[in-house]
Specification:
The chain is mostly beta strands. The protein has 7 helices and 51 strands. Helices cover 9% and strands 39% of the residues.
Length: 716
Amino acid sequence: MITTVQNFKSWLKITILVCLVLSLPACNLDSPIPDETAPTLDPFHATIIELQGDVRTRQPYQNEFSPAEPGMRLEVEGLIRTMLDGRARLDLSSGTTIRIAPSTTVQILDNQISQYGLSTRLRLELGKLWIILNGGTLEVETPSGLASVRGSYMSVELLADGEITITCLEGNCRLGNSTGEVNITNGQTATITSPQISPIAGAMSPGQFDEWQQENPEAKDLVEEQRNAQPEGTETPLPQTPAEPASYGPDPEDFPEGFNPLTGQPTNNPSNLNLPAIHVAVSHFPAAASRPQFGLSFSPIVYEISIGDGQTRFLATYFGDFPYPDATLTGDCEVRTEPIQQTGVLLGNRVWADLDENGLLDHLEPGIGGICVQLFDGTGSNLLQTTTTDSNGFFAFNVTEGGTYLLEFIKPDKMEFTLQDVDTNDSVDSDIDPATRQTTVIGSDRLDLTWDAGMLVDPALLEIPLVDPVIGPVRSGRIAFMPIVDFFQGSCLVQAGADKQVAKELRVCANVFGPDAGAGATIDISRLEAIARENSSGQHTVDYSGNTFTEIPPAGGQSANDLRLFYSYLDQSKWVYDPISGSWLRYVDDSTKANAGVFHPDVDRLNGRRLHFENVMVMFVEHQLVDNNPRIIDLVMDIGERGDAYLFRDGMMYPIKWNTEGGIDGRRTVMKFQDQNGNPFPLKPGHTWIHIVNLGSSFYQEPEGSSSWVSRFYAP
């Protein structure tokens, strides 16, 4: 009796499934129960075809992945993974087609009956899919949100940083997360950039249409139809408003989820904030072999410390986003190397690569140097000025207050303009009409650095440059590093060995060595990340909060255009304020007697871009010689110490205090920066370079009363 009931339930479920899929008019649930020996349909599954490159599968009953073969059947709960050169097509038994891009992992979940017919579910762990649905609905689960389509054509892409983008070539598509959802239809796209931000919808870009056509031959006619239905440059821009100034800290709850408490900025991978900081001893001498260094622009805080003999060494702190080598994108004009001095009302901002094609300037999307920008009067008929972007994509013009202007950008080959004004926040979207290459008419009643141009870049231009993905050069550890390392709970030091007398005082997590003892070694970025993960074992969640960040410049500062540091005759550097980026550009000399004090722009060898830091600080700390050895210096920075410092931000200099007070339970916490009354003093959101100088070192204006500042280091 039990067997008969079970057979009836199985027959009923299969009958309903067949009727819904095939819409058979002859289906009649009043028909007699089939004989137990009658054939049944195959369970829901996927067949793998059109294999290219390295593709692997793991069936639900397997523990490891194995090579895929054409015609192989992937069962429910099975996974398919394409490697860097791999592609595949899945034909579901329901009639749906799925194409899988390289570097993608997807799991077939199930197929159920819903009010719209069949409801298919997939899970995308990473990568990109193109879906051509054969009736019903299909959902794609991801760690960042849920995408669904009813109607037929949808693509889903999940990046490693958690950002998810869908396109809806035809039909009704939806993208949502815990903060909200959007519904889109023919020729539209939607993106989730952060777990704390609701999905944002817009029009599909030319590149997204091209991808649909290239990857799905059967969609060619539909692509042309939808592309023609969306005239280029006719999207309705959203109303633009200036961004509200943001402030964060000093307590952990004062930072939005996913924000780095050392920068006051978001991270691409918030889970990295659970890893401890790793500090790297970076070489600065000998100059010819050590400079420019790899990866300094990715360090939230760089400390420059005297090591004796008139030399300094850097302690670079890595926490949050790990460094990466990227292509140095340039246009057809010369890359500007010097900052633009403000003589009138500044108008401009940045040209950047819209890597995810969502029309928004996302965290870590790079600037594009060497883009020609032209300034016209408000009629568009009179060319007034021209300039180019620097290596970080920044540009500006000095204009007359009260005038009207428009900007025009010269488009390089293999680049196109992204969508215009897709967000109400004028600081994060592109302001250029792709059809005209121009902005709207701009009034100049105030400083206006919100005029951005986002560029869609040919993938061939984004190939990884021919540099090793490393940090360094790495040199020996120093006792002076340890007071700083100790302030970061669970952190440790990466070095290239150390003097025997020094080594016993250090907390080291890796020693790296290179073939050239003079230049030091380097450490692979992948190893740096692995060390952070290994060092987090058994540790509590790190808390590096304690300082405040605000985009609003504090009151009470003095004007500062540049700062010169004189550690010794052959160790000099300079910072120049760039009002366009709102940061300080670093310059160094070449440490030769013939060119002492002759400065040239400093760059990050990892990406070829100018080093620029939002905060620069001169911090006065007592230096002590260990055993009267001028090459072994310790810093008096134990818990409870405090001293004077000078903070440079937003073109101003502020006298402040540093404080190493510990936490309530006596644990070390990060160094705090305060005003003269002990209240938190805000840093600017961004990265900070700290020059540590000995007590008694000088700090003054030169010439007196000017906006130029000098600090001279006096050895202990």
